[in-house]
Amino acid sequence: MWLDPSSMEEIEREFMSLSDYRNKERFIMKEKTKNRLINWAKGLVSAALGGASTSVGVMLAEPATFNIGDGLGSLVKVCGVSAVVAMAAYLKKSPLFPTTNAKGDVIK
Questions:
Q1: How far is CA 92 from CA 24, 44, 51, 95, in A?
Q2: pTM for this predicted structure
Q3: Which of 62, 94, 59, 93 is nearest to 76 (CA)?
């Protein structure tokens, strides 16, 4: 059962289109994973900034102790602790960006 050259060209064309489709699918999966990682990192940074911004409220509540002059060390400590607590809360909600397998199913 020999194949004529025209059918071989058709088979090669089918194979190439399937190969191109798989490469495109892999590229799309990589882009989706990259975008998820970027969004996850942005969420983590925004949680840290939101937590650190609570130090402004502390400055307003106790200006004698937490100020930019003499109380700068105390203000930085409150800012750091607030940021860490906010980041921990974010990591509890979103431990890591979701990954997918080759079929596109989310792996938990």
A1: 34, 11, 15, 6
A2: 0.62
A3: 59
